[in-house]
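#lab-general

N.A. 3:47 PM
ok so I finally got the sequence cleaned up, no stray characters, all 88 residues accounted for. can someone with queue access submit it? mine expired

B.Y. 3:52 PM
send it over

N.A. 3:53 PM
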Amino acid sequence: MDDHYRIEVFWSDEDECWIADIPDLRYCSAFGGTPEEALAEVLIAKVGWLESARELDKALPAPSLSPAMIALYEPTSAERAKSPAVTA
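B.Y. 4:20 PM
back already:
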């Protein structure tokens, strides 16, 4: 199973720190004084999250793509016009 999950890093005015969150892993987030610290902490949290899920025989969620990444992979109308239609 691929464990390359999307990580979002953002500033929280409410918490006055940087937050790193892995949306695909429920409640897997961390904070830090810099974006790099938040990222380092969430990577540690990810390892623990995945180890716990495996120990409990929980199904691991498939990594998802952000809407921006999906847009990068969707063919343009010109690209679709060039490609033959796929039928099942």
